[in-house]
Amino acid sequence: NAGVTQTPKFQVLKTGQSMTLQCAQDMNHNSMYWYRQDPGMGLRLIYYSASEGTTDKGEVPNGYNVSRLNKREFSLRLESAAPSQTSVYFCASSTQGGLSNQPQHFGDGTRLSIL
Amino acid sequence: AQSVTQLGSHVSVSEGALVLLRCNYSSSVPPYLFWYVQYPNQGLQLLLKYTSAATLVKGINGFEAEFKKSETSFHLTKPSAHMSDAAEYFCAVRSQAGTALIFGKGTTLSVSS
């Protein structure tokens, strides 16, 4: 079972470059999420998509855009990368958002360095 | 607003010793609580979740957590540590709007032989 698949696994960018992080899930989940993980900070929500066709900002959305391409895929775009965006990015999905106890399932992450 | 505090960024135990990782939460609504584990260079894996059906929750790999409403705590325990338990552990609470998870800053567990 693939679960949540993120590509690429590693990437090095120069300041000002753009790139798109890809995420796909094969669990027929409605909700998808993008987090960033920084040392000592835990995970912080960048954007989420409660269902196909909707996206909303999370805690740290500045400098990012997202696209919910279809039910399976949720991409994260950095239009003009900055060194402060050096981080590990995780995509997650869950059966549904809302007030439920359904857990989120995580991909293995994309390690992004911006020089 | 919901928040999570994990006490101790680093916990060290000997193999066979009790593991206790502390988590306190703040929530204005009945909380949905989770513990996740992250092994090096991997994503987060669900250990257990609080469903309100029982205050003592059993998870994978011998871990369990007890929900104490009066103490707003959801501490993670394991009776006997194994070397393979060395990892980073995150406590999380679902946000009030139900949109996502709010994570603590994590506790790194080291296990020595």
Describe this structure as you would to a colleague.
The complex is a heterodimer of chains A (115) and B (113). Chain A has strands at residues 4-7, 10-13, 19-25, 31-38, 42-49, 56-57, 64-68, 74-78, 87-94, 105-106, 110-114. In chain A, 0% of the residues lie in helices and 50% in strands. In chain A, strands 2, 4, 5, 6, 9, 10 and 11 form a 7-stranded mixed β-sheet that branches. In chain A, strands 1-3-8-7 form a 4-stranded antiparallel β-sheet, with no helix packed on it. Chain A is built from no helices and 11 strands. Chain A is an all-beta fold and 115 residues long. The model of chain A has no long low-confidence stretch (mean pLDDT 92). In chain A, strand 7 and strand 8 (74-78) form a beta hairpin. Chain B has strands at 3-7, 10-14, 19-26, 33-38, 44-49, 56-58, 64-68, 73-78, 87-94, 101-103, 107-112. In chain B, 39% of the residues are buried. With 113 residues, chain B is mainly β. In chain B, the strands form 2 sheets. In chain B, strands 2, 4, 5, 9, 10 and 11 form a 6-stranded mixed β-sheet that branches. In chain B, strands 1-3-8-7-6 form a 5-stranded antiparallel β-sheet, with no helix packed on it. Chain B is built from no helices and 11 strands. Chain A binds chain B through residues 4, 33, 35, 40-45, 48, 50, 56, 58, 90, 92, 97-101, 103-109, and chain B through 9, 29, 32, 34, 36, 41-46, 49-52, 90, 94, 98-106.
Give a short synopsis of this structure.
The complex is a heterodimer of chains A (115) and B (113). Chain A has strands at 4-7, 10-13, 19-25, 31-38, 42-49, 56-57, 64-68, 74-78, 87-94, 105-106, 110-114.
